Amino acid sequence: MEEENKKITKVVISKDDELTDIITSIVDSQNERIVLTFAEDSDLLISPINLKVILETADEQEKLLIAQIIKNSTGVRNANSAGITAVETTTLPTEDIWEEEIEKRAERLSPKKEQPEKKMKQEKIEDSAKSMIMIDQDIPSPTGQQTEEKTPDFSTKDFSSVEEKKDTSEKPSRGLVVKQEGKKEWWKKNKKFFIMGGIGLILMTFLIAFIYYKTAPFVRIRIYVESKEATVEKVLTGDENIKEIDFEAEKIPIKTETAEKERSANVRATGKAYKGEKAKGNVSIFYLNVEDCSKSVTLPAGHTLTSEAGKIFRTEESVTVSCAEQLKTVKVVASDIGEEYNLSTTSFSVQNYAVTDIKGTSTQPFTGGMKEEYTVLTAGDVNTAVEDLKKISFAEGEQELKDKSGGSWKIIEDSIKSELDKDSIKTSAKVGEEASDVSLEIKIKSTATFYMREGFEKKIADLLTQEAEAKNLFETDKDLTLTLSQDVKTDVNVVESTPASTKIKLSAKGSVQPKIEKETVVDALKGKKWEDGMSVLKGLIFSEKETEVVFEPKNFPEKLKYFPAKHGGINVEFTKVL
Are 41 and 69 in contact (CB under 8 A)? Predict the structure, then answer.
C-alpha cells in the first residue's frame, strides 16, 4: 500500500509482501523520497541481504530511502548493517534525517575510500615487511645492552683470510634467508584464512546473485482486447399457448390485453341560426304578348318571381293569364324570413319568361317579414369535442396497458392500438337544435400485445454468442469462450396482426469479446523461458494492437530473462480497444 505525502512516497509493507513488490513500488514511485514502513513482522528484515538489494535499487533509481521499523530491534540492526537509515518512530523522518541520508548516499555513490580496518591491516603488513628487511643488518643487542663500535686496527690485522672471506660473500646472507623463511611462515599462518575468505566471498557472491535472479524479475503484461458487434434478426410467430421463446420452432409466447374507457364532457354550441316569418303580399301578373291571343300562360304554385332588388318570392297558388284576361292577381310569399322582404311597390320578373311577355307588379307593400338569431349545436361542435375527448381517452387507455407491463410480461410498444366506438357518441341535443351547452359521451377501446420476458434476455444472449461463434468474428482456429456485454439492444415489433396470427420481428445486437482469466494467462507463463512465454502470448492476440510486455529490472541480462514463477511476479492487465 502506497501513500503520497507531498514529495514523499510511503510504502507500507505487510508480512505477505515479497522483495519484488517493494522493488516495484520503488521503481514506480514518482517522488524522490521513499519511506518503507514495516508495521508488521516481515521475513525481509531477517537478512541484511534483502535490505541491501532494496538499498541498491533505490540508489540506481536515484531515490532517497529510509526504513521505518517499529518495535523490531533485529530489523533495525539488519537495516543499519545493510546501510539503510532506520527510524523507530511512527512519524515521518525529519528534514535533518533526510539531509543525513543525502550525505550517506553521496558517500555510497562516490569512489570507495579505504576502510579503517583495511588500512590498519595494510599498515601491519608493512611493519612486518620492515622487520624482515632489518634482519639484513646486524642483529641488535638485547634491550638495555649497548654495543660499542670499535675502530679496526689494520697494523695488527692478518689479511691472509681476505680471499676466503671474499668467496663466502657469494653465498646467501643470513638476513635474506631469515626474510624468505619469514614470508613462508606468514603465508603458512594466513593461507587458510585467505582460502576460506575467498571461498566465502565466492559463495556469498553466488548466493546474492542467485537471490537476485530469483526475486528481482517482474513482468508486466498488457493485452489489448477488441469488442466486436454481433447482430441477429428473426421473425417469430406469436403463440398464446407456450411459456418460453423457441427459436428452433420460431415461436414466441404472447398475450393480448384490452382497456376500455368511457369519457364525457360538455360541448359549447357555437352555431348560428335564425327564426322568424316570411313576408307575404299580392302581385298582379300582366300578359303582354297580344300578338298571339290563342295562347294562355299558367303559373303553377311555387313559381318564382324576382323583384327588382333581387328578392325572391314564390306563388302560393296557380294562376292563368291570357290575351282575353290579361291581368290576374296572385298571392306570393318570400323565399326566406326577414324584414328585408317587406317590400314596397315594385316590379317582378317571371321565371322562364321575358319581361316583354309576362311581368308582375305589386301595388301594396309586403308585410309580415321578420328574423330572430339564436345558437344551435353544429356537427363541427360535436366533432371537435369528440377529438379532444378521444385524445384524453386514448392516453388513459394506453397508459393502463403500459402499467400492466412488468414481471414476466413486457408490452410491445408499437402494438398499442386505440379506437373510438362511433356508435357510443351521444349528445344531449341534436345537431341543429337550439342549445348553449350540450353534454357529450364516448367510449374507446385500447389493445396491446405483450411478450413473455422470463428467460428472454438469456435466450437472446445465447443467440448472439452463437451467431458470433458461427461467424468466427475473431478469425482464430482456437476454441474461444465469448462473453457478451451488458448493453444488449433489443427491438421487438409487431409486423403483422390478424385474427389468425401475429408476427413478431425480433432484432438484437451486442458486443462480444473473448473470455480470458488473468490467472489462466499467469499459470500458462509461470516458470517459462522468455522465448517460450512470448510464443504463448502471441497466441493471445485479440486486436490489431500488439500485446505490451515489460521486463524489470531493465538492466537484467537479456539471455537470463524468464517468466518468474513466484507469486506476484507476473502482472496481467486487459485493456479494451474501442
Answer: no
| pTM for this entry | 0.46
Domain definitions of the chain by residue range = 2-109, 116-138+164-214, 215-226+515-577, 254-269+377-452, 279-370
Quote the CA–CA distance of 492 and 504 in Å, as a whole number.
Answer: 7
Q: Which fold has domain 279-370?
A: Elongation Factor Tu (Ef-tu); domain 3 (2.40.30)
**148 Cβ partners below 8 Å, 6+ apart?**
none
Which residue reads 516495484 in cell numbers? 24
Topology given in CATH for the domain delimited by 2-109 = Transcription Regulator spoIIAA (3.30.750)
Distance, CA of 567 to CA of 17 (rounded, Å): 10
Strand 312-315 relative to strand 296-299: parallel, antiparallel, unpaired? unpaired
DSSP-H helix ranges across 277-410 = 379-403
Q: Of all helices (H) and strands (E), which one includes residue 162? A: helix 162-168
Main-chain dihedrals φ then ψ at residue 84, nearest 5 degrees: -90, 135
Extended strands (E) in 422-484: 426-427, 437-452, 482-484
pLDDT per residue, tens digit, the chain (578 aa), is 444 445 799 888 887 888 888 888 898 888 889 998 987 778 888 878 888 888 889 888 888 999 988 888 888 888 888 889 988 888 888 888 988 889 888 888 876 444 454 445 445 444 443 433 333 343 344 334 333 433 344 333 443 443 444 444 444 444 444 556 666 677 766 777 778 788 888 988 888 888 888 888 999 999 888 877 888 888 999 998 888 888 888 889 999 999 998 889 999 999 999 889 999 999 999 888 767 677 788 899 999 999 999 999 999 999 988 877 778 899 999 999 999 999 988 999 999 988 888 899 998 999 999 999 999 999 999 999 999 998 999 999 999 899 988 888 999 988 899 999 988 899 988 898 888 899 999 999 999 999 888 778 888 888 878 777 777 766 665 666 777 776 788 889 998 888 888 999 888 887 887 777 888 889 989 888 999 989 888 877 778 788 999 999 888 888 889 999 888 889 999 888 77
User: What residue has cell string 518503507?
Assistant: 36
Fold type of domain 254-269+377-452: Translation Initiation Factor IF3 (3.30.110)
**Bridge partners, 575 (sequence order):** 224
